[in-house]
Amino acid sequence: MGFQATAVGEAVRIINNMRAWRDPETGQRTTIFLGYTSNLISSGLRETLRYLVQHKHVSAIVTTAGGVEEDFIKCLGHTYLGEFSTPGASLRAKGMNRIGNLVVPNDNYCAFEDWVVPILQKMLEEQEESKKTNEPLHWTPSRVIHRLGKEINDERSVYYWAWKNDIPVFCPALTDGSLGDMLYFHTFKSSPGQLRIDIVEDIRRINTIAVRAKRSGMIILGGGIVKHHIANANLMRNGAESAVYINTAQEFDGSDAGARPDEAVSWGKIRTDADSVKVYAEATVVFPLIVAATFARAPAQAEASV
């Protein structure tokens, strides 16, 4: 015990309380929001995240564009273990891209383009065809991810299971990555027609999930937009009842990632009487241990409210 081991123990306790809670009138479970940054999908933690989605342990997900595309790219090609110290110029000459100590070949992104652009074209055709009906189709980031999860049809994919289990995946910065590049490339193929993606409909959707929750819990790995998007949705219900943050950032620079849960209390994003903890640790090290002590202990009893 002591130091960050105590924080890990607190995270286990808080998550198990999220899982155990039931509304006495309706029996509804805690609505669990899971957020994570793209590097965690690039890493081996992807398999842990997929486990949570496959077994319906979470209610909604927020991630970045990289957190979406890297999942599909891993279904299309291999990611390799490299070194943090490998010079960028030598990797560039070999057509390799470094993510920390992981390496992704350029060919993987070519395979991604070959796979996703025809799907985007089909989505555009469906959008245009729907204009002839009384219910025109509005694509949103969550609907795009839902469709791609269906199309990948691969049980290794996080978003295949999100599609199969109807767990919404929100990505307010969907264009900030290779998927954004593909959307850009597609505009030249589809001109003058353009695929339209409505972010306002998605903000309404995630906020409504939070507002309607009988009890809300947040599990957030990393910081930035994924952390704030979940926290801000919970502002709409006067704060979450429980929160677990896992990242290595410090608060001295005023960054979102560095902020402790108590800062969110001041904004009304976490309730004043909430159960919360920040674990100062690298998520690929500690989150599998936390999942082993929580969700993996009794999978049949731990489905989140969806």
TrEMBL record:
Named cofactor requirement(s): NAD(+)
Enzyme Commission number, as recorded: 2.5.1.46
Pathway the protein takes part in: Protein modification; eIF5A hypusination
GO molecular function, one term: deoxyhypusine synthase activity
UniProt KW keywords: Hypusine biosynthesis, NAD, Transferase
Catalytic activity reported: [eIF5A protein]-L-lysine + spermidine = [eIF5A protein]-deoxyhypusine + propane-1,3-diamine
Role this protein plays: Catalyzes the NAD-dependent oxidative cleavage of spermidine and the subsequent transfer of the butylamine moiety of spermidine to the epsilon-amino group of a specific lysine residue of the eIF-5A precursor protein to form the intermediate deoxyhypusine residue.
Protein name: deoxyhypusine synthase
